[in-house]
């Protein structure tokens, strides 16, 4: 496109003080200069082999070119330009893929604000752009309110100090999530990205009054029901409703770029998904498997949490097993849904990971209900909850440590995985259903073997009793530095490694992933770190551990396959590093799958050039 103005300087066009004319009218007014201009445009574009942004002037009928540069472009424009340049024979497919900013593909997948309306709106605050997209709705302060209003079809924005797994139901119903605390890998950010929901986190300027359901920002107090809009791509917060337009993920150019990406990438791209809905969404975006199913997210539904809490409050192994028996069929149904959604692609299921305190009620009424349901006293339940308190729960009783203390949980989860795989294989004999069971937070070979033995014993018995043939794999997350340092030992017993770089970053730096957002800005300002190590892999330190683990792992187990499922699995520069160290796949939230496909292709093209 082009514009021009007569009797004017360039500034008049840029400043918008006068309305320019479309470039086609130049042909009528100055046919000679226009002809020459079109020729020069061709010369410049051919020279730079890219779409150009050009400035020119015509004085006394003579054309002067003032400036040219590669034109800025939206994601929509970028994919069309890339396809056009291939079709014109101007550049190769590889060059075209390299031209596109992979991160910008995000814009094609999430609802966006109406451009005009956004321009007219004025932000009232800014947080961290944690999950892209546009959200506009009425403010709610609790997950329960989000569910209640969301079910009625109302658009709501959930505003919290921070979110926890208990808020998941509410987050599902919210258009967007705004948190006062947290960063790129805090709960709200990770879950929102997984759901494809817009999220702005860590807006420290908000003065929150959760008890009275209100907050103050930029001198104004916002109450429940007030209008709010969030831009998850910039972190901007607006105190009004800005209209949104839905995304069209199946645009022709987009599909073509994705196909080309698959042609050139050498790493697989999987997804982090916990529900069949997310898994199907990711499969439609081109995911070739699930790299991480966080099974704990399956316990929070209103029909499941009571049995899970019963399990936590059990006084004896028998009581615990009875509660787990109630959960097992639900888990099996979940896993069947995941295997079905992926149609025979690999599915990695990670066993229970978070500390148990995240599952217990905090509300007095809920505690009383739990006590009543279990025939226990309120005092007993309160004591159980108090006993679960840890000073540093992220380094506490979680991950495979839960299995070491409560092996019954791993037995139940193994049983659910294997029975689900057998059922789906029965329904689709031609599918290659190979469940990959992943043990979290391993730091020691003997600890891993303890859990693996439980898995193998349980799985083999079920398979034998069913009289079927089912292959399954057992592997571990590498998310504790000690696991990376002893990867040669662990590899002897593992079918796969998957780098949990959220925890690996947390534990290598010694930064809490939920709190680092508070002090990291000072590190950027003082040029100590350039970027958030939770968003962009620290290839120097954390990356060294990863490279070491992959190399040592392969030395002792040539067949081991390695992937990544931390948030970095959807970040282009981190993906390039993963390609360099020879990972087999990256896994990321569904809405980042297209980004990962293109990034993996770009990484492979770059590697070929070296
Ligand atoms: C990780 O630590 O990178 C990971 C994927 O696990 P989670 O985020 O669930 O701790
Ligand atoms: Mg982890």
Any descriptors?
25 helices; globular; binds phosphoenolpyruvate; 18% strand; 610 residues; binds magnesium ion; alpha/beta; 25 strands; eight-stranded parallel beta barrel; eight-stranded mixed sheet
Q: Which secondary structure elements does this structure contain, and how are they paired or packed?
A:
Layout: E1 3-4, H1 10-15, E2 21-22, H2 24-29, H3 31-48, E3 52-59, E4 62-70, H4 75-87, H5 93-99, E5 112-113, H6 115-120, E6 125-126, E7 128-131, E8 134-140, H7 143-151, E9 156-160, H8 168-173, E10 176-179, H9 187-195, E11 198-201, E12 207-209, E13 214-217, E14 220-223, E15 227-231, E16 236-238, E17 244-245, H10 252-264, E18 268-272, H11 276-284, E19 290-294, H12 305-312, H13 317-342, E20 347-350, H14 364-374, H15 378-387, H16 400-405, H17 407-427, E21 435-439, H18 445-466, E22 473-478, H19 481-485, H20 487-491, E23 496-499, H21 501-509, H22 520-525, H23 542-556, E24 561-564, H24 572-580, E25 585-588, H25 593-609
Parallel strand pairs: 8-9, 9-10, 10-11, 18-19, 18-25, 19-20, 20-21, 21-22, 22-23, 23-24, 24-25
Antiparallel strand pairs: 1-2, 3-4, 5-17, 6-16, 7-11, 8-15, 12-13, 13-14, 15-16
The structure holds phosphoenolpyruvate (PEP) and magnesium ion.
